[in-house]
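Hi D.,

Good news: the full-assembly prediction came through. Inputs first.
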Amino acid sequence: MQTFFIIAILGLGFLITFQIAKASEYVAVLRGEEKARKQTNKVNAFMLLAFLILGLIGVWYCNEELKGKILGKPASDHGVLIDRMLYITIIITFIVFLITQIALFWFSFKYQESDKRKAYYYPHNNKLEVIWTVIPAIALTVLVGFGIFYWFKITGNAPKDAMQVEVTGSQFKWEFRYPGKDGPGGQGIFGKRYFKNTNEAKGNPLGQLWDDPANHDDIYISGDAMHLVVNKPVKLVIGAKDVIHDVGLAHFRMKMDAVPGTPTTMWFTPTITTKQMIKDSGNPDFVYEISCDQMCGKGHWSMRGTIIVETQEEFDAWMATKKPQYLVANPDKDPNAAKTDSVKTVAVVANDK
Amino acid sequence: MSEVTNMHSGAMAGHAVHHEDHHGHHKETFVSKYIFSMDHKTIAKQFLVTGIIWAIIGGLFSVLFRLQLGYPDQSFPILETMFGHWAAGGQIKPEFYYALITMHGTVLVFFVLTAGLSGTFANLLIPLQIGARDMASPFLNMLSYWFFFMASVVMLSSIFIQTGPASGGWTMYPPLSALRQAGDGSKLGSDLWLVGMALFIISQLLAGLNYISTILNMRTKGMSMTRMPLTVWALFFTAVLGVLSFPVLLSGAILLLFDRNIGTSFFLSDIVINGEILPNEGGSAILYQHLFWFLGHPEVYIILLPAMGMVSEILSVNSRKPIFGYMAMLGSLFAICILAFLVWAHHMFVTGLNPFLGSVFVLLTLLIAVPSAIKVFNWLTTLWRGNIRFTPATLFAIGFVSLFISGGLTGIFVGNSTIDIHLHDTMFVVAHFHIVMGVASFFGMFAGVYHWFPKMFGRYLNSTLGYMHFWVTMIGSYLIFWPMHYQGLAGIPRRYLDKSGWTSFNGFPELDKMITIVSIIVFAVQLMFVFNFFYSIFKGRKVTTKNPWGANTLEWTTPIRPGHGNWEGEIPEVHRWAYDYGKDGREFIPQDEPIGENESKH
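Then the structure:
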């Protein structure tokens, strides 16, 4: 009912507008088109000026209202660089924005049609053209310079001591894998995977090859947050099972596509623990979120994962509760299997999620 | 002199094209005049009317998904009445939401702003402004419209099938668009999308080749390339871009059809979907993105260049001043055209692209800002010390420049890979391209429609409705898209239909409501424009003079309602460029007026 009411009002408003518009055209013809045109010309010129002034006030107001809701503190070292680049760009572009928009609307107002003035025949001026080719070129060189400098810092190789986490996206969930402690220096090595080995029912959701000893200590996490250590660089190895997804980390300002068949990587150093962020933001529900940023199907908008950034001790304590997936999938290989029936049940339940 | 109508002139200007005198008496049936017409002016109107119908459909889709975004918890029973199971309980289902945004993008980018904008004005203006009686091949021209029509039928039909239209986003990235198991929209709807797009590309190629050969070969006597109005130059570069880049998308579409239907693995590898292990190995999903964006980026300029050309012309005519820096305008068009081919991978900074390659694309992308800046400064200088008449066309042209500045500057954010890491695929991108490519091009299109409507139909659009149309659209566009940048800065991903489940992204419910309300108002005003358009075709104020705007270009030397062949008698000869406004104390000097003895040089 309400909808029809609204449609009726819209229709009526439209009819009235149309009648006014038609009438104003007749009036214009009666009063002399030339005179009527000059009248509307003045009105429109004034409106353009008003639009400029109100528009600039609007820009200011919008910023006042919304600036508290964006960005927040960057929670990674790369995030600091990205924010700095962003502010450099905002300053330069906002100056250009002001100059050009003011010129556009001011010229429109100032040089509205008038019987007293004749348009100035001014077809070209090479000096001016050179000036406004060179100045933008210089400004852009600055932006490109900073941009590429930061870009290489961010996309360069991860530090050797970085911890590694593998992230796998699928419709519509995130799964994680930690490489355990094998390999030189205890960095951990990810065991090999082959997609045709994937078998959820047999406890192998990632298609790990159990023949590869590197797989034997890899920890699989599903339905839980990714845990990271504060101030320790982390390299994410990113992949997808079915369609393209994207690991979006708004607080760390990081993002990388998850492409089936083509692993990608990104690294950063989280600098603020979750607990610290809860305190700083005053939001008790604060949590680092992983958003899927690449259209992946009907559940795209709800493909959410979480990250907990904590101290090394907290991380170690969490990791100690986890059991390698190799042992979950092959309980007969588990030296502790006999006495821990209950743990096994829990692991299977976790897998079914 | 243009009043001279030498009905029995035998001498034709250069080439033998058929002539009103000889063919005027032939019986034209309704079908040959209005449906299978080979007259470029009628084909232009066909493109425009089809484009308008598509714009209403595409615009309506945006209103529907804005309802979901603004009021995610509310139910609208009317939606269930209209769309049945797609909106069960009056709430838009996610599948339906994604179908809506996919079709909104596809329809507006390709069917409205490519076919409806450049199809309309290239057809209308190229022959009229270069002084030709029709296109080089009127038959191919007609075919191009009918291929577009077939593409439209196929695309439209996909909306009515059981599993719904394609819903993988307008970019149709595989594997999502390649695998039937990935969702309803990836079933028959995606095949129809690809077939529709293939037909559409054929239409664009036929049209583009025709435009290029017409401009190169059929200019009237005296119309050297550098005397052409900037509209024609812009349409020329548009056609070149289309002809060189659309085939690449065609290859992408066909390979994707193969992957979908005959088991190839061009884009597929290592896939386990819903527990099902697929056999494909060795394909690259990213390859499709390269093919798509090799068209996709030039496509932005295919949409924008005609608008730029028309805005240049309209600003010059209505400020009664020559366009400032004609050669610089030309040079910047050319530079944009070249650079358009060299920046496609800036859409792919976070796909795992080699970072070095990424940095090259940053450089080339930001380079485009230079010719764009030149154009803006030249438009500003064209207005400076003019004597500006604010017709609805002028206002839309000024609005175009304002939006092009705003949207162009945010391009410097997302074109810079460092910032793009944060902003990629967020609402910031949505705001950016809607302003610079969507709304700005629409403003160019509206400017063109208001300016050339008298030439198309011999009547004026109602200008009071025109002014209202402009002001509501201008204010509305900024209200919708300006605050949207802030959502993007907050990291809100695009294509999220409900953000209440997220702690990072749920801060803007009021803003989303405001944007929804404004977009409904703006949509209603566009309907008012459509009404004005069709009403004025039949009932608008009649045009009584040949040259109502006091313009220099050749289309205004034709009769008020030109027949097929455009000029009665000889085609006028051109003696000067198109921009002698305010020269030597004269308000305007048409292009077909010979150079006077004491005339000053520019």
